[in-house]
Structures
1.
Amino acid sequence: MPNKENKGRTEEHNRTNRCIWFFGSGASIENGFEYKEPEERKKKDRNERVMLIHKDVSAKMQKVSNVPIYKELLLNLASYTSKNWQHLFCTTNWDYLLQREIDRLFPEKKPPWLNDNLVFHLNGTVEPHSEDSVFTRQSILLPDDPLDYRKRTIETNIAFTKIFAQKMFVVVGMSLNYEIDRILPPIIEYINDGINFGPKWLIVNKCKNDFNLVDRYIKDTIRGVTLLRREEITFEKWLKNGMQELQREGVLIST
């Protein structure tokens, strides 16, 4: 397995703007992957629950060999990202479908439009990684874990440093009704501390209720925010439409 932790991290580019992406459960669902921990499991010992999540999610990922929406996203970003922009990917999901697709499409070298070839997993991941690496990953976090389980690792430190004080954010498939996605509010509050004016947020969600919850939370929390989309849409349709909002903001080249 390639060592993604360090590959390309020190490469410098003359790209000064960073678009931060947050992928929630809905993004995986639209790519054909859905997993929720069975309710009866929640009575078990925590370590056993984590072990079973690793087993179940890893097995389920083997059955999802193609992720056409993630693939289309990555190829479009590779073709149309403006020269002074890069993209950074974060996710609340335990699966590593997006990371796997990045590794398939760009196996040798981090492309210049990508700020980091690693997808940052804010709730941990079942992705195999080297145990002797100095790069520590976030361990699997459960929705009902107390706050002290969320330890700062090298992975989360890098992610939060890269997120801090940025002004363009895209939220795909996040649901504040879905327990694993509820890390978004504290992240938003952290981001808010580093913002002086004018952050822009774009919500992509096919569920009207989920869209409205995230929309309302962002408006109520972030100073001077501009929300670039005012209605629900599927991830797939938004890509087919050319990610028009990102074109208008200059993140992508107009087509």
2.
Amino acid sequence: MAQIRGSAIPSRQILSDANTLSNQSRLWHGELVDGQLKAAPLREAIFELYADPEATTAWGADSKGRTLSRLPSYAFNEEHLFDVGIRIELGSGGTIQRQVPQERSRTWNEQGTKAVQFGSHMVALNILGPAYVQFEDHVDEMATVLRCYLEEARPSKIAWIGQRYINAIKVPVAETDVGSYFAIYPRLPADYVGHRPFALRLQTAATKNGAVMVSLSLEQVDASDATYTLDIYARSTSDVPNDIDAIRAWQVTIHEAVRAAFEHSTSPRLRDHFAGSQ
């Protein structure tokens, strides 16, 4: 049975909602990809864990305070958010279930470049582009944040864990051959030139316990650039052990598939374009 669940993890949603950030999330970060990509247009990286909606947890009124006391760098600009609480299950019955919306909090570091999110059934670490170095530099912090939640909430069952990279790629507005920048851009008739509204979603990889989905869409066009959103989202596809070492190992393993998805979705021309960026 396929499930589509509303995920309220990103600090800046692709579609506008209460989580929208300021334009600081549009800055660039640098990371080498097989020695080719010198600068990548990362908007945000997200590492998440969701407990099963039907699971019991020990998360209570004092849990957030105890958890944040173990993460003293995240003590600024606390926000209170609500998940939409809707789950659509696509199966033979075609049922639609509405769950009670769940509250969660988002607390930032002093620079406003990283945030942690906690709720009774979820935890996430959000890293904006200016704070992102490369994956290996953030693994320990990611594991610490997830461990703090697991030790406090003690969920009876984990629904999924995920890793997500949201990129904002600017292409010169005068460029007519958009397909030369993106390997997954659809082939269009010769007279369909320019930057046309579109959205594409493609599964690029499947592992023993994970799948990687790539979404490419035109976000906006201004006088100088057309901005395309390249959203790469990996999620576990089977039971996840309630063990931080196993969860950390999954994040490390799936990142290789995420990295490959970025390379396979973009073109050498695009990577050459970024190679000269500061």
3.
Amino acid sequence: MVDLAGASEPPRPAVGCETRWGLVARLCAAVAIACLFLLALYPWGGTYFPEGNWLRGPLWLLKSQSLGDNVFGAFVTVLLLPALFAWVVKRSPSTIVATVAGAVAWVAFGMWLAAMAIA
């Protein structure tokens, strides 16, 4: 006797396996979250006071008039954003460590800029 009741269901991926569209959706979500993150933390005012908020990290350099500071700020921002949002793309212990390390590096860079602004 053959049970054909389960034959009409589509095959399910194995535990831990993810489909390609799931990866695309997570990448799009990570980009959207990163854009909101940058929009929320960008210093929009006309003044330059990096000692006021450490959470803005390298975004303070994008407010500077110096081209070298702008390039360095953009480089550090592009370098740290994938680490900050690695957990959105792939959830594993290593990406959680990368996210925490990226967040610590982001705030540490903001602290360093504040120390340089005060000195």
